[in-house]
Amino acid sequence: xxxxxxxxASLWYRAYYGMPDTxxxxxxxxxxxxxxxxxxxxxxxxxxxxxxxxxxxxxxxRPTWRVELFPDYKANRLEEEGEEEEEPETLTPQIPxxxxxxxxxxxxxxxxxxxxxxxxxxxxxxxxxxxxxIVTGDRDLFQMVDDKRDIKVVYLAKGISAHDLVDLKxxxxxxxxxxxxxxxxxxxxxxxxxxxPGVRGIGEKGAALxxxxxxxxxxxxAGAHAAHQSLTPALIKKIIAGIDYLKIAPTVVQVARxxxxxxxxxxxxxxxxxxxxIYQFKERYGLGASVDRLISVLGW
Length: 300
Prior knowledge:
Blueprint: E1 3-7, H1 8-18, H2 32-48, E2 52-56, H3 64-69, H4 75-83, H5 86-91, H6 94-105, E3 109-110, H7 117-127, E4 132-136, E5 151-155, E6 164-166, H8 168-175, H9 182-189, H10 204-213, H11 217-225, H12 233-241, H13 243-253, H14 276-285, H15 288-297
Parallel strand pairs: 1-2, 1-4, 2-3, 4-5
Antiparallel strand pairs: 5-6
């Protein structure tokens, strides 16, 4: 009874960079991201055998409520995109084709205005019954790991074949913190990929020390004011100096868990009476064995 939640943008970027750019449709449209995404989805279904699935999207990759709190949120990516226009241009036309293909297969696709895919994923993980497997190449969703509810992250940083299945022990072993405190650790450490600086002067070791000794931001601030024995004078000074950032960081860094989700049937798609539209789509875009693999793994 597993629910699989796909961080779709993470998957199609990984597919785009991981598959040859020589994969083209008959009309010359690049299809490397499409084929890689479908191949990964088929492989993941084969491994984890979910009975429910959702492809989650960004309704807005820089939600206004996060940017209002922290104007530099992901601003670094805006600059990067301006410098690297050529590669996104060859990915962009593939996305609507991929979404059309997912629709043909009957795989639910969900994005909600003014929320990121992470927020959509987190809300599904909050309201749906487990087991739940969150598929992503990003660490942000480590904060959702919950052994009691059997919520784990299928972490694709090393690719499908060598992926990690992240539980609380994985987080604890990797970062030397209590596994359930990843969000607290990330608040203090920051995340350069999202333009989040963390608390000035506090790196991964300092953030881990804080997360080992305190359960919340407020506890850490109180500990700094009380000169808690676990904190060095330098760390105390940095925490107190970062209080303004720490007031907004939890809302920016932590995923939203109350996204207004549409009412959808999340069940694995049943075989349509006629597969010819899918086969026609496959031929039109030269998607070959990728589509065949997904049909096969769905048992159609």
